[in-house]
């Protein structure tokens, strides 16, 4: 079951991937994202991950304290990103 937070984070990731690929609006190259979707399978590299993390910091008014190399090793799929943000929001609450 996908909750509201997961739905929002998936939308943020999808928007960033489409923006980075040059596809905007209805021209979707990403398709359906799920928690199991591997970040590399949708073209997210280390720079793309940094951009996604920045977007999430802005959206949720949080600070993500991890360098890109560490983030890359810990965040392999969309579900990993969702759980990391959930944890940061819980700490800040």
Major sheet: none
Category by helix and strand content: mainly alpha
Q: What's the oligomerization state? A: single chain
Q: Radius of gyration, rounded?
A: 12 Å
**Series of H and E elements:** HHHH
Binned strand content: under 5%
Low-pLDDT residue spans: none
Distance between the termini: 23 Å
What would you note in describing this structure?
- With 93 residues, the protein is mostly helical.
- The mean pLDDT is 84.
Question: Could you name the key traits of this structure?
Answer:
mainly alpha; 93 residues
Give a short synopsis of this structure.
Helix content is about 60%, strand content about 0%. By secondary structure, the chain is mostly helical.
Write the layout of secondary structure elements.
Elements lengths: L3 H18 L24 H15 L7 H7 L3 H15 L1
């Amino acid at each position: 079951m996908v909750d509201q937070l997961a739905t929002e984070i998936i939308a943020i990731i999808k928007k960033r991937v489409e923006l980075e690929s040059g596809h905007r609006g209805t021209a979707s190259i990403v398709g359906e994202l799920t928690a199991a979707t591997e970040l590399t399978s949708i073209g997210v590299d280390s720079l793309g991950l940094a951009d996604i993390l920045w977007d999430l910091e802005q959206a949720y008014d949080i600070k993500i304290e991890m360098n890109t190399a560490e983030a890359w090793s810990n965040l392999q799929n969309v579900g990993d990103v969702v759980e990391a943000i959930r944890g940061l929001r819980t700490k800040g609450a």
